[in-house]
Design brief:
Number of strands: 2
Strand order of the largest sheet: 1-2
Number of domains: 1
Order of helices and strands: EEHHHH
Helix content: 55-70%
Shape: globular
Amino acid sequence: MLTRCSQSAAEFGLLIKLNQDEYKEYHALGTVYAEYLAARVNYWSHEYWPRNVAEKQEAVDKAISTWRNSQA
């Protein structure tokens, strides 16, 4: 899950891998849970920072681009 975080004047992205419980919740509730989790990550980013998988950002961007192109 990629979340845009804003803390005071700073803004940054945080890419985290969902844990098993988060994955189950997301598949059960969809965007409602994704929005809730994004708000949690934004507010408590320091708790999620150890789960940051930024090294996978390029692969994520490529997958999103491929998906968008397939939707056109």
